[in-house]
Amino acid sequence: MHPILAFIIGSVLLVLAVLGTLFNNKSARYHLEEDNKGAAWGARANSIWGAVSLIGIAFSAVGIVGVLDTEQYAGLASESPPVREPASPVEEFEYLDQSPDFVPHPFVEFQDVLANSQFRAYIAWMAQTGIDSGFNMATHREFRPGGCVQRQTVAVFLYRIAGEPTDFTLPRVESFPDVPVGHNSFRQIEWLVSTGIARGFYDGRFHPGVCLERQAAAAFLYRFAGRREDFVTPARESFLDVSVRHDFFREIEWLANTGVVEGWDMGTHQEFRPTEPIERQAMAAFLYRAFNGGHLQGNFS
Hints:
301 residues, mainly alpha, two-stranded antiparallel ribbon, globular
């Protein structure tokens, strides 16, 4: 449920509970004067309205927490992982007729990436360019393609694509209490913030370990590409779940227009599923297409 809707429902229930209690007490006093049964009747009614008020408080709390989890300015999304599963087994990358024009070196192997995986070339490109070499285990390497991309991880990805800028000066005091000076991704996150690609949440934190939503990934790439003001948004949305009034409409449409993403084919329409966390394999495909399509400028081999 959308947090604003939950807050509205909670507020309505609280108002009804207050009005109901006031009316009930007044009515109970009237019945008490008439037939001496008002006290018991009023007590039962008050318990009902009390339960309604508790439900209202719960809905309001859910709504407030959801609203506070929104990014600090338009174009950055909340990063809470969704709970629903994909509505269709038709993955967004199945529309590709061929692998990208890239041949992985034989040594780029991950135990959890099959040779016939449609993401293999994208993942190998990530490893060979040094953007992400995966996870070193005792006897093998893993890429964990179905795992989500954390906010701190995308900061590292973009920082490496940018060539690990040496002209960037770290601040003396950390920008976020949850990303202190000793944090593993301190430099990359501070750089990401300095470029205006990301800022953090209303609670003043960056939430580095939270999964990045697909709509936020679109926003990050759009800003990393230099906020393409020359891009003209279409009059009609490309995805049923991203209307022209969506906060990320421009960023997502740019992503679709450049061919970085096509979304899920539902037969009668396309879906982008903006609030779902982006998987590591999908992020590899996004970055590969964006960079090799000339939409991102990088300084790495």
